[in-house]
Specification:
Order of helices and strands: EEEHHEHEHEHEHEHEHEHEHHEHHEH
Largest sheet: 6 strands, mixed
Strand order of the largest sheet: 4-5-13-10-11-12
Number of helices: 14
Structural class: alpha/beta
CATH class of the domain at 84-110 and 235-244 and 266-384: Alpha Beta
Bound molecules: pyridoxal-5'-phosphate
CATH architecture of the domain at 84-110 and 235-244 and 266-384: 3-Layer(aba) Sandwich
Number of strands: 13
Radius of gyration: 21 Å
Length: 419
C-alpha cells in the first residue's frame, strides 16, 4: 500500500531524474518536474474494491499514487474527501440543472491549498527539509503555516501587501514568519527564491517543486471515485498558477492506466479574471506558452498570477480536452458571489465566484449545453477575504428600547430589495 513513486520527469524536456533527492525545477529548462509512479505495481493493491474499504485517511487513502514513502512522514490535518454537492437552485438560475460544486473550502485552512501543502511538506520533510518558504496570494500562506507547524518545521511566506489580511493573520498566528512585498505574487516568488538559500529553507512555490501538484491531483482522483468512475462532461476551474488543473488532468491519465476509467475526458475550462488573464490570452492566440500579464488586478487574489511556470501544461490540458479558457469581469465576480450565497452554494471565495460566473457566460456562448453535467471547483471559503462591496448596513437596536413593529417593517422592506 506504499508509494510507488519511481522517478521525476521534466514536464517539457522529458528528462528523468531520481525521485529520492530534493528537487525544484528541471535543471535543463527551468520548467516543472512531475512525479512518475510504477502504475502496474500500484494496480496490485489500489483497486476499486480496496479503495472502498479505505474509509479513513482523506487524500492519503491514495498512498500508492502519492510520493511519501514512509507513512510516518505523512503530515495530515484531515484534508481531502470534500463533498461533491449538487447545486439545484444555482443551476436552475444558470439554466444548467446538472451543476455541481466540489466543496474545497471544507479543507483545513479553508481552501484546496491544504492538499498541495500536505503533500509538499510531508514529502520534502521526508527528504530532509527542516524549513520551508513560499510566495502566496493568501491561502497558500495559511496552508503552509498550518502544515509546517504540524510537522514541527520552520515556515516563511512572502505575501503581497494588499493580500487579504485574514490570511496574513492566519499565517502569523500559526508561527510563520511573514514578509509583506510591495508587488505581485511574481515579485514574492523572486523574494522567496532569493531568501531560500540564505534561510536554509526549501522553496515550495507553485509547480517549482514536484509535490504540491501531487496533493492537488487527489481532487481528480476523488472526483472520479465520487462519480462512480465516470467523469462529468465539463470541469470548470479557477486558474492562477494552475496546479489544480494540471493535477486533475494528471490524475485522469493515471486512473486510465490503472484501468479505473476509460479514455473519455471532461472538457477542462480555465477561468481567470479579466484583470489578470494570461492563460486566456495565450489560449485565444493559439500560443504554447503565456506571456506575463501586465498590471495584474483582481479582487480574486488567488487568480492574480501574471505568469505561471506551468503555463504550457495548463494550455495543453485545455486543448487536449476540447475545453477552453474564459475571463470574467470584477462586477460579475461580485454579483455571482452574492447570487451563489443566496441560492445555497455558501459564502464562496471571489475565486470560486469567478469560476461560477463563467457558467452562464459559457452557456450564452454555446460552449455549455443545458443537459450537461458540470463540476465547478469551489476552491475556498469567502470568510478569508474582505467582504463583497456594498453589503447592506444592518439596523442596530437597543434591546431594552425598540419598536418591534417598526423593526419588522424595516427588515421586511430590506428583504424585498436585492443586493
Ligand atoms: C490558489 C488558489 C486558486 C488558484 O489555484 P491554482 O491551482 O494555483 O491555479 C484559486 N482559488 C483559490 C481560493 C486559491 O487559493
Amino acid at each position: 500500500m506504499g508509494s510507488t513513486l519511481t522517478h521525476l520527469e521534466g514536464a517539457l524536456s522529458g528528462a528523468t531524474y531520481p525521485a529520492d533527492e530534493p528537487a525544484n525545477l528541471d535543471p535543463k529548462d527551468g520548467r516543472p518536474l512531475l512525479a512518475r509512479y510504477d502504475l502496474e505495481r500500484a494496480a496490485r493493491t489500489l483497486t476499486v474494491e480496496s479503495l472502498a474499504t479505505r474509509r479513513e485517511g482523506g487524500m492519503w487513502r491514495w498512498s500508492e499514487l502519492l510520493p511519501v514513502r514512509d507513512p510516518g512522514h505523512v503530515v495530515s490535518l484531515g484534508e481531502g474527501d470534500t463533498p461533491l454537492l449538487p447545486q439545484p437552485r444555482l443551476g436552475r438560475a444558470f439554466g444548467l440543472p446538472r451543476l455541481y460544486t466540489k466543496a474545497e473550502g471544507l479543507n483545513p485552512t479553508g481552501s484546496f491549498k491544504a492538499r498541495g501543502m500536505s503533500a509538499a511538506v510531508s514529502r520534502n520533510a521526508e527528504l530532509g527539509a527542516t524549513s520551508f518558504i513560499a510566495p502566496s496570494a493568501g491561502n497558500a500562506a495559511g496552508a503552509l503555516a498550518a502544515y509546517g507547524a504540524a510537522a514541527g518545521v520552520g515556515v516563511t511566506v512572502a505575501v503581497p501587501v494588499d493580500a487579504p489580511p485574514a490570511s496574513r493573520d492566519e499565517a502569523l498566528a500559526m508561527g510563520a514568519r511573514l514578509v509583506l512585498v510591495e508587488g505581485l505574487i511574481s515579485d514574492c516568488g523572486r523574494v522567496a527564491s532569493a531568501l531560500a538559500e540564505r534561510l536554509g529553507a526549501f522553496d515550495v512555490s507553485t509547480l517549482k517543486e514536484p509535490y504540491r501538484v501531487e496533493g492537488k491531483k487527489t481532487m481528480g482522483l476523488e472526483l472520479a471515485e465520487q462519480h462512480s468512475w465516470r467523469l462529468p462532461d465539463v470541469i470548470v476551474y479557477p486558474t492562477g498558477g494552475g496546479t489544480g488543473l494540471v493535477g486533475i488532468w494528471k490524475a485522469f491519465d493515471e486512473l486510465e492506466t490503472l484501468g479505473f476509467i476509460g479514455p473519455e475526458r471532461p472538457r477542462m475550462i480555465a477561468v481567470q479574471a479579466e484583470g489578470c488573464a494570461p492563460i486566456v490570452r495565450a489560449f485565444e492566440a493559439g500560443e504554447r506558452f503565456a506571456r506575463p500579464f501586465e498590471n495584474a488586478r483582481t479582487r480574486a487574489a488567488g487568480l492574480r498570477v501574471p505568469s505561471a511556470v506551468g503555463d504550457f501544461l495548463i494550455l495543453a490540458a485545455l486543448r487536449e480536452s476540447g475545453g477552453t479558457a474564459v475571463a470574467v469581469d470584477e462586477d460579475s465576480i461580485t454579483r455571482t458571489q452574492l447570487l451563489a450565497g443566496r441560492l445555497g452554494a455558501g459564502y464562496v471565495s471571489p475565486e470560486s465566484a469567478a469560476a461560477l460566473a463563467a457558467v452562464p457566460e459559457l452557456c450564452d456562448r454555446g460552449e455549455l449545453n443545458p443537459d450537461e453535467e458540470v463540476v465547478v471547483f469551489d476552491c475556498g471559503i469567502g470568510q478569508k477575504y474582505p467582504p463583497p462591496p456594498n453589503l447592506p448596513e444592518p439596523p442596530t437596536i437597543d434591546p431594552s428600547n425598540y419598536d418591534p413593529e417598526r423593526l419588522a417593517a424595516k427588515l421586511d422592506a430590506r428583504s424585498r430589495t436585492k443586493p
